[in-house]
C-alpha cells in the first residue's frame, strides 16, 4: 500500500482515542490468522516492519501502532527508516493532534450549541478533550502541521487548530457526515465548513435581506394572531428562520438553472410559506380565515392543508414553485412530492436531474416516527424512484404535540438518525442564528447539486405557542415554556445584532416591520421576487382534462392489420439474445397469436394495450414488486439474457423517438411506492401510470395513500389523477392472506364519481379498459381487481378481432348462443373469476334456464347498461348476486342498492338474493378442503336451488 493510500485509510478511519482498542484487536486477529481480517487491513499489516525480523504473537502493539500511524501521516521519511525506536515525541504528538482534529469532525456536533432554549442536556464527549489524546495546555503554543485540515495554513499552533475546529463543528452548526463512505463527499464537506470556520462573512446587503425575511415571517404571525385570535393556524413563531432558509434555498437552486421546485410540508408554517415564499395574496388567505371557499365544487380542505403554485425570479431565471397539498398524515406527502418531481424531470428529459428539485419539510417527531420516511429514503437511489436527491428540512420543535422526552419520542440521539441509512449528510443548526441557517442552506443545495443525493437540514427551534393556537403547552411542558416566555424572538435578537454591528439603525428595524404590515393591510403580494405574468411553459397543462363528463363507453378500437403489425414488432428479440426456455415458448406463442393461430391470452392483450398507447404518443410507466415479469409469470415486459444477465424491453424499442415505456421492479414497499406513483400521475396527465401490487391485499399497507389522496384528492383539492392500481384478486384456496384485494374497502370509498372500480374477466376487456383510461380526457383513478388464475384459464381468452373492434363493456350479457333468453327464468349477476366457476357449474348441471351476466365495472355503477341486459329476459323470475367473497366483504353490501334499483325498473316483483360465502372475519378459508366445500355450496345456491 502506498503512503498516499495509507494516509487516506487512516484519515477516513476514526482509529483514535478509545477506538485504538479496535486496532489492537484487529492486529491480534491478524497475528493469529491473517485471513480473518479484511483484505485491505491485511495488506496494511503485511507491510508493517517486523520486530527482530519476525512477527510473533507476543509482538508489542504500541510500537507497531505508532509506526502504522506515522507511516500514514509522514511523507518526509522513507518507510524503511521508520523504526519505532526513532519516533520523536513531537512526531507522536503530531499524530495525536490529527486524532483530536478527526474527533471534532466525528463528534463535534455533540457539544455544538444547537438548542436555542439551552434545555437539551448532552453527555460529555471525552474524545474532544486534549488530554484524552495525550496533549496538554503546555502544547497549545507548539506549532503542528495541519495539511490535512482546511484552515488556510500548512501549520499552526495547537490552540489555533483547536479554535478553528471548535468554531467549525461546535458552534451554531453541528455536522454529521463521517458516516458517509465516499471520501470525496466527506472531503468536500470538510473543505466547505473548515475553510470559513462555518461562519462565512455576509455583506451588509445580504444581512439586511435576512432580517427583512425574518421580519416578514414574524410579521405575518403577529398580524394573524391579532386579527384572528384563537384560530388554528399552526404558526411559525419560534421557527421564523424557516422563511430566510427557504428564500435562500430557492435563490440558490435558481442560480444552478433549476426550473421547478416541488415542496412538501406538514402544517406548521404552511400559511407563512404560502404568503412569504410562494406569494399567495394575503387578502385570499384572510378570506379563507373568514370562511370563504375557492373551490367551485367539492368539500375543500382546511387552510393548513392547502397547496399552491407560483413563479419567482432568481439570479438564474424564472423558477416555478409548487407546494403540495397535504393531509394530516404528515409524512405521507414526502413520497408524493418526489413522485411529482420524477414526472416533471421525465417530461423535461432531465436525466441529470438538476432542473427540478424536491424539498420536503418535516416535523421532528414525524420524521423520526413515521415509517414512510424510511421507505422514501430507501427509494431515493433506486432506478425507479431516484430524483437526484431531496433536500430535507426539519422544523425541529423538540416536542411532538405533548411528547418531548427523548426516551418517549424515539430511540435515537437525533430525530434525523434515520437519514444515515442512505448516508445523507445532516446539518443540525441553531434556529436562532439566521446566518448559520443561511450557510447550511447554501451547503445543502450545493451538496445536492454536486452529488445528486439526499441531504438534511435539522433546524433546531421551538414552538412559541402550543401544538396549535388553541392549545396550552405549559400543561405538559412547564419548564420548556418558562424558558420560551422569557426568550426574545430570533427576529429581535438578530435585529439587535445588526444594530450592534452598525449595519442598521433602530429606526430602520421599525420601518421594516411597519412596511410589511402596511402591505398586509392593503392585501398586496409581499414577495418581491414574485413573477406577476409567469412563464406558462413551466406549468403542467391540465386544461384538456378539466370538467370532463363521466362517459363509460369510449371507442378504443384499432385496425386489425395495424394491430397484427404491432403485435409482431413487440415480440421481436435481438439476434443472439438467448431466452429462458419457458419465456421463449411464451414469445413464440405470442407470435402465433399475432397471426391468429392461437387465441389471445391475458398477457398478450395487456402488452398490446401498452403498445397501441405508445404508438398513439402516450408514455407508459409501471412499477410493482415483480412488474417486469409479473408475479404470476404472465407479462414478460422485460426479457433477461440467459448468458450475461442483460435485459431487453421490447416495448421500449417499437419505433424511433417513441414515448417512454418504463417498467420497474420496485423495492418491497407499498405506502411510499404508491404515494410516489400518485404524485407522478398528478403531474403526468397524458401518460398511463400503473402500480401493481404483488398480491391485492398488499394494498393494505398503503391505505393512507388510498384514503387521503387517491379517493379524495379531487374532492378536497381539485387534484386530478389517472393512476391505475392493479390488485391481483381471486379465491383459489390459497388461504386468507392473498385471496382478497379488499374490494369492499374501495367500494365503500366510492362517491361523487371519484374513482373507477373494474373487474375485467377477458383479455379483450383488460385491453380496452387500459386504452380507455388514457384515450378519454377523463382522469380518474382506476382500481382493477386483477386476476391470478384467469391469466392462464382455458376459457379466459379473446380473439384479435375482439381487440381490434369495440370498447370496454361495463356489463357483459350472456355470451352462450345455446342459452335461449325466452327460457331463462334466473339471472345470476357476478363479477370476476367466479363467473368461470359458475359457467363450469352450469355446464355440468345442464342448467340452461340460468343466464350469467357479468358486471365488469362496479363503480361508477352501470345502471343503464345493466337495465338493458336484464330487460332482455322476458320470463325472468328471480335474480341472484353471486360472489366468492364472504357476505360482509366483496361487492354485496356496497352495490346491492344499485342492483335493486335496476330490478325495480325491470319488474317491481323481482327479488335480489345472495349466493356466496357466509360473513367471515377472515377474507378466506385457510384449508383447501374447506375452500372447495364453500365453493360448491354457493355455486349450488346460485345455479340450482330455487329462491
Automatic annotation (TrEMBL):
<dbReference type="InterPro" id="IPR032106">
    <property type="entry name" value="2-oxogl_dehyd_N"/>
</dbReference>
<protein>
    <recommendedName>
        <fullName>2-oxoglutarate dehydrogenase E1 component</fullName>
        <ecNumber>1.2.4.2</ecNumber>
    </recommendedName>
</protein>
<feature type="domain" description="Transketolase-like pyrimidine-binding">
    <location>
        <begin position="600"/>
        <end position="793"/>
    </location>
</feature>
<dbReference type="GO" id="GO:0005829">
    <property type="term" value="C:cytosol"/>
</dbReference>
<dbReference type="GO" id="GO:0030976">
    <property type="term" value="F:thiamine pyrophosphate binding"/>
</dbReference>
<dbReference type="InterPro" id="IPR005475">
    <property type="entry name" value="Transketolase-like_Pyr-bd"/>
</dbReference>
<dbReference type="InterPro" id="IPR001017">
    <property type="entry name" value="DH_E1"/>
</dbReference>
<dbReference type="GO" id="GO:0006099">
    <property type="term" value="P:tricarboxylic acid cycle"/>
</dbReference>
<dbReference type="GO" id="GO:0004591">
    <property type="term" value="F:oxoglutarate dehydrogenase (succinyl-transferring) activity"/>
</dbReference>
<keyword id="KW-0786">Thiamine pyrophosphate</keyword>
<dbReference type="GO" id="GO:0006096">
    <property type="term" value="P:glycolytic process"/>
</dbReference>
<dbReference type="GO" id="GO:0045252">
    <property type="term" value="C:oxoglutarate dehydrogenase complex"/>
</dbReference>
<keyword id="KW-0560">Oxidoreductase</keyword>
<keyword id="KW-0324">Glycolysis</keyword>
<dbReference type="InterPro" id="IPR029061">
    <property type="entry name" value="THDP-binding"/>
</dbReference>
<dbReference type="InterPro" id="IPR042179">
    <property type="entry name" value="KGD_C_sf"/>
</dbReference>
<dbReference type="Pfam" id="PF00676">
    <property type="entry name" value="E1_dh"/>
</dbReference>
<dbReference type="InterPro" id="IPR031717">
    <property type="entry name" value="ODO-1/KGD_C"/>
</dbReference>
<dbReference type="Pfam" id="PF16870">
    <property type="entry name" value="OxoGdeHyase_C"/>
</dbReference>
<comment type="similarity">
    <text>Belongs to the alpha-ketoglutarate dehydrogenase family.</text>
</comment>
<dbReference type="Pfam" id="PF16078">
    <property type="entry name" value="2-oxogl_dehyd_N"/>
</dbReference>
<comment type="function">
    <text>E1 component of the 2-oxoglutarate dehydrogenase (OGDH) complex which catalyzes the decarboxylation of 2-oxoglutarate, the first step in the conversion of 2-oxoglutarate to succinyl-CoA and CO(2).</text>
</comment>
<dbReference type="InterPro" id="IPR011603">
    <property type="entry name" value="2oxoglutarate_DH_E1"/>
</dbReference>
<comment type="subunit">
    <text>Homodimer. Part of the 2-oxoglutarate dehydrogenase (OGDH) complex composed of E1 (2-oxoglutarate dehydrogenase), E2 (dihydrolipoamide succinyltransferase) and E3 (dihydrolipoamide dehydrogenase); the complex contains multiple copies of the three enzymatic components (E1, E2 and E3).</text>
</comment>
<dbReference type="Pfam" id="PF02779">
    <property type="entry name" value="Transket_pyr"/>
</dbReference>
Amino acid at each position: 500500500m502506498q503512503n498516499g493510500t495509507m494516509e487516506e485509510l487512516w484519515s477516513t478511519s476514526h482509529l483514535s482515542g478509545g477506538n485504538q482498542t479496535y486496532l489492537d484487536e484487529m492486529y491480534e486477529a491478524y497475528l493469529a490468522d491473517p485471513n480473518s481480517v479484511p483484505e485491505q487491513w491485511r495488506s496494511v499489516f503485511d507491510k508493517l516492519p517486523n520486530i527482530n525480523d519476525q512477527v510473533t504473537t507476543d509482538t508489542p502493539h504500541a510500537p507497531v501502532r505508532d509506526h502504522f500511524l506515522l507511516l500514514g501521516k509522514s511523507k518526509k521519511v522513507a518507510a524503511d527508516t521508520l523504526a519505532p525506536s526513532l519516533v520523536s515525541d513531537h512526531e507522536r504528538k503530531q499524530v495525536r493532534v490529527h486524532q483530536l482534529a478527526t474527533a471534532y469532525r466525528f463528534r463535534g456536533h455533540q457539544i455544538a450549541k444547537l438548542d436555542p432554549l439551552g434545555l437539551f442536556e448532552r453527555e460529555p464527549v471525552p474524545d474532544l478533550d486534549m488530554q484524552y489524546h495525550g496533549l496538554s495546555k503546555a502544547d497549545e503554543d507548539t506549532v503542528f502541521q495541519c495539511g490535512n485540515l482546511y484552515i488556510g495554513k500548512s501549520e499552526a499552533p495547537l490552540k489555533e487548530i483547536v479554535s478553528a475546529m471548535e468554531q467549525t463543528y461546535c458552534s451554531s452548526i453541528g455536522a454529521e457526515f463521517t458516516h458517509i463512505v465516499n471520501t470525496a463527499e466527506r472531503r468536500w464537506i470538510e473543505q466547505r465548513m473548515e475553510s470559513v470556520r462555518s461562519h462565512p462573512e455576509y455583506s451588509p446587503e445580504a444581512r439586511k435581506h435576512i432580517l427583512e425575511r425574518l421580519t416578514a415571517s414574524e410579521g405575518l404571525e403577529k398580524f394573524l394572531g391579532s386579527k384572528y385570535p384563537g384560530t388554528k393556524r399552526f404558526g411559525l413563531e419560534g421557527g421564523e428562520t424557516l422563511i430566510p432558509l427557504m428564500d435562500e434555498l430557492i435563490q440558490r437552486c435558481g442560480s444552478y438553472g433549476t426550473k421547478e421546485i416541488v415542496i412538501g410540508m406538514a402544517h406548521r408554517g404552511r400559511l407563512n410559506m404560502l404568503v412569504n415564499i410562494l406569494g399567495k395574496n394575503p387578502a385570499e388567505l384572510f378570506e379563507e380565515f373568514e370562511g370563504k371557499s375557492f373551490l367551485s365544487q367539492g368539500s375543500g380542505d382546511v387552510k393548513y392543508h392547502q397547496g399552491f403554485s407560483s413563479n419567482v425570479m432568481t439570479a438564474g431565471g424564472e423558477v416555478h414553485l409548487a407546494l403540495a397539498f397535504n393531509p394530516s398524515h404528515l409524512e405521507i406527502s414526502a413520497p408524493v412530492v418526489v413522485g411529482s418531481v420524477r414526472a416533471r424531470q421525465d417530461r423535461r428529459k432531465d436525466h441529470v436531474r438538476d432542473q427540478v428539485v424536491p424539498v420536503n419539510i418535516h416535523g421532528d417527531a414525524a420524521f423520526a416516527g413515521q415509517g414512510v420516511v424510511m421507505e422514501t429514503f430507501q427509494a431515493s437511489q433506486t432506478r425507479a424512484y431516484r430524483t437526484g436527491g431531496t433536500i430535507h428540512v426539519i422544523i425541529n420543535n423538540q416536542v411532538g404535540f405533548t411528547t418531548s422526552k427523548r426516551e418517549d419520542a424515539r430511540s435515537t440521539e437525533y430525530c434525523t438518525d434515520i437519514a444515515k441509512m442512505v448516508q445523507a449528510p445532516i446539518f443540525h443548526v441553531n434556529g436562532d442564528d439566521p446566518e448559520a441557517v443561511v450557510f447550511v442552506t447554501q451547503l445543502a443545495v450545493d451538496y445536492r447539486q454536486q452529488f445528486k443525493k439526499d441531504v438534511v437540514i435539522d433546524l433546531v427551534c421551538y414552538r412559541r405557542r402550543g401544538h396549535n393556537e388553541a392549545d396550552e403547552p405549559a400543561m405538559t411542558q412547564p419548564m420548556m415554556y418558562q424558558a420560551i416566555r422569557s426568550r426574545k424572538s430570533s427576529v429581535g435578537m438578530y435585529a439587535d445584532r445588526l444594530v450592534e454591528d452598525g449595519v442598521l439603525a433602530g429606526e430602520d428595524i421599525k420601518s421594516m416591520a411597519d412596511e410589511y404590515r402596511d402591505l398586509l393591510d392593503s392585501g398586496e403580494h409581499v414577495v418581491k421576487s414574485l413573477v406577476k405574468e409567469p412563464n406558462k411553459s413551466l406549468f403542467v397543462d391540465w386544461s384538456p382534462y378539466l370538467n370532463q363528463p363521466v362517459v363509460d363507453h369510449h371507442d378504443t378500437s384499432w385496425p386489425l392489420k395495424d394491430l397484427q403489425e404491432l403485435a409482431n414488432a413487440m415480440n421481436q428479440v435481438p439476434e443472439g439474445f438467448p431466452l429462458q426456455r419457458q419465456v421463449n415458448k411464451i414469445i413464440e406463442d405470442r407470435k402465433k397469436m399475432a397471426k391468429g393461430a392461437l387465441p389471445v391470452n391475458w398477457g398478450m392483450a395487456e402488452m398490446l394495450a401498452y403498445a397501441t398507447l405508445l404508438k398513439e404518443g402516450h408514455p407508459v410507466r409501471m412499477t410493482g414488486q415483480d412488474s417486469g415479469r409479473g408475479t404470476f409469470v404472465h407479462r414478460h415486459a422485460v426479457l433477461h439474457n440467459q448468458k450475461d444477465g442483460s435485459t431487453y424491453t421490447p416495448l421500449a424499442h417499437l419505433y424511433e423517438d417513441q414515448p417512454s415505456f418504463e417498467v420497474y421492479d420496485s423495492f418491497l414497499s407499498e405506502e411510499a411506492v404508491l404515494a410516489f406513483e400518485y404524485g407522478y400521475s398528478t403531474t403526468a396527465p397524458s401518460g398511463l401510470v400503473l402500480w401493481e401490487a404483488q398480491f391485492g391485499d398488499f394494498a393494505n399497507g398503503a391505505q393512507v395513500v388510498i384514503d387521503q389522496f387517491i379517493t379524495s384528492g379531487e374532492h378536497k383539492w381539485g387534484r386530478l389523477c389517472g393512476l391505475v392500481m392493479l390488485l391481483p384478486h381471486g379465491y383459489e384456496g390459497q388461504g386468507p392472506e392473498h385471496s382478497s384485494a379488499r374490494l369492499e374497502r374501495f367500494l365503500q370509498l366510492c362517491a361523487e364519481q371519484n374513482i373507477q372500480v373494474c373487474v375485467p374477466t377477458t383479455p379483450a376487456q383488460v385491453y380496452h379498459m387500459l386504452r380507455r383510461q388514457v384515450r378519454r380526457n377523463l382522469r380518474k383513478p382506476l382500481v382493477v381487481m386483477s386476476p391470478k388464475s384467469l391469466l392462464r384459464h382455458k376459457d379466459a381468452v379473446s380473439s384479435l378481432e375482439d381487440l381490434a373492434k369495440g370498447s370496454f363493456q361495463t356489463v357483459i350479457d350472456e355470451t352462450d348462443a345455446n342459452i335461449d333468453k325466452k327460457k331463462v327464468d334466473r339471472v345470476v349477476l357476478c363479477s370476476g373469476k367466479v363467473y368461470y366457476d359458475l359457467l363450469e357449474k352450469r355446464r355440468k348441471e345442464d342448467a340452461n334456464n340460468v343466464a350469467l351476466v357479468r358486471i365488469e365495472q362496479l363503480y361508477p355503477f352501470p345502471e343503464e347498461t345493466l337495465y338493458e341486459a336484464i330487460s332482455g329476459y322476458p320470463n325472468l323470475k328471480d335474480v341472484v348476486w353471486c360472489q366468492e367473497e364472504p357476505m360482509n366483504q366483496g361487492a354485496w353490501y356496497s352495490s346491492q342498492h344499485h342492483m335493486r334499483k335496476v330490478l325495480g325498473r325491470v319488474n317491481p316483483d323481482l327479488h335480489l338474493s345472495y349466493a356466496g360465502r357466509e360473513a367471515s372475519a377472515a377474507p378466506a378459508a385457510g384449508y383447501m378442503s374447506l375452500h372447495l366445500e364453500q365453493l360448491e355450496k354457493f355455486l349450488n345456491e346460485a345455479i340450482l336451488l330455487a329462491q
